[in-house]
Amino acid sequence: MAFQVQDIVNRQSDLWRALFAMPKVELHRHLEGSIRLETLAEVGYEHGVPMPSYDPEALRPYVQMTAQDPATHEAFLSKFAVLRQFFCSPEVIQRVVHEAIEDAAADTVRYMELRFTPNALAKAKGFSLEEVITWVCEATQEASKANRIKVNLIVSMNRHESLEIGRATLEAALKFREGGVVALDLAGKEPGFPARPFQCALSGGAPGRARDHPARGRVGGRRQRARCHPEHARGPRGPWCARRGGLQHDAGGAGGAGCF
Predict the structure, then answer these.
(1) Distance between terminal CA atoms of the chain?
(2) Looking at residue 64, what DSSP letter applies?
(3) Which pLDDT value is given to residue 144?
(4) Chain-wide mean pLDDT for the chain?
(5) What is the rounded distance in angstroms from the CA atom of residue 64 to the CA atom of residue 37?
(6) How many domains is the chain partitioned into structurally?
(7) Are 252 and 239 in contact (CB under 8 A)?
(8) Does 256 map to a domain?
(9) What is the largest CA-CA distance in the chain?
(10) Are 258 and 228 in contact (CB under 8 A)?
(11) What is the CATH number of the domain that holds 156?
């Protein structure tokens, strides 16, 4: 059974209210996982996107982990099947960015790193990776200013997709280092899709133990730190971290991120 936060957290308690009011840092919020159910239903209906339902509550089990779901990596990733049909125009992509940042600010988050997968946002309508990153960067700058929150971006690629897509994603990300992109994430299906091919193709580095260390380079005048995390499905055997062009690469699973 999937873990349900609401089963153990009393959001009416004094402790919860005090914690909620505190300013917070969030280092890994998924853009594709931050879509409001109402927005998903509304945009899907307006654009004729085929969905199991256009009722927000009826859509919930298709896009969120529920108590009925097995607590597995595969069950989690299956929720993106519906979500990734949804990015059908630049306006929709930018609306989701704006709303994700608005919601973070409402949660009293003061600094956030927002993670998104350009290829997933691009392929529904054949957008280019650079177009998608441009739209996300523009919306991030606008929404950050409007909501008084600092937001940087993590660009993600999937290990179960081709190395060519990975290389293209990296090259696109490098062009936006001055536009708010601060990290590259290797995510996706772990069983049967090891990180090593991406490590060799993108950086030529070597596997190592998870660690935090200061990066030698700077991006946009900011001193960077690199974080390596193990592959969630393989335990401590999977971490690696390498440098290329001032960017730090990380081999996290769904939910892992590395800064550059």
Answers:
(1) 36
(2) S
(3) 98
(4) 79
(5) 10
(6) 1
(7) no
(8) no
(9) 51
(10) yes
(11) 3.20.20.140
